[in-house]
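Today's session is about reading a structure prediction critically. Students often jump straight to the picture, but the first step is always the sequence itself: look for stretches that repeat, for charged clusters, for runs of hydrophobic residues. Only then move on to the predicted structure, which in these notes is written as discrete structure tokens rather than atom positions. Here is the chain we will use throughout the hour.
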Amino acid sequence: MKKIYFAALAVAAGLLMVSCQKEPALKIATFEDVTVGEAGTNATYTEDGIHGWTSGEFAFTTGSGYGGTYFYNFVVSSQQENTFASYADQYHSAVGGAAAGQQFAVGFQDLYSEGAALEIKLAEAKVIPGCYLTNSAYAMNSMEKGDDYSKKFEAGDFFLLTITGFKDGKEQAKVEFYLADFRDGKSEIVKDWRYCNLSSLGEVDKVSFALTSSDNGAYGMNTPAYFCLDNFGAQK
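Below is the predicted structure for this chain, in token form.
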């Protein structure tokens, strides 16, 4: 009888130990584990098409179109400037570098190329604590000064990033992050790295990103459809 009793205690103790064990830590996307070329990005412009890459345990894609003359989706950048004078500067963040380390990701929303999708995927559904976000130098410059295609931001304008979580193909929840907000007396363009809490999305295996702006024309959004991302999956 004692043997059965002690055996039961051992089983109970083992179950308690298992239940108290923490889930394996999420391997965040720091982008430091991605190889960049001499130009300071992992973009490839040799031909049209999409290639995949990973950082941490997250899967990303980079696309190129029109014979490789531009990129879409995500690229990794190690460029440290915060200026924008030409398209060669499209890999600059508004801060002039990463939130931590040397590398960060730049996202570009292309609504026209086949296969273009600002998405990040996981092999299995998990809660993603959050990430760090800021403007690209291109978008910041455009909103501050205006350019040939976009207007200088004024009262009532906004530049919004909407982040949507999915599990098994079903939408779970959304998080909104204003990259610029001139509504209700505000006049702010984000120029520093800011933490965005994503835990409210719940367990997800895919996250998508969509940019919208108050500045639109006959062909869609005029504000440059770029933003910068770092430490995806990090705790604050």
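Discussion point for the tutorial: The CA atoms of residues 94 and 192 lie 7 Å apart.
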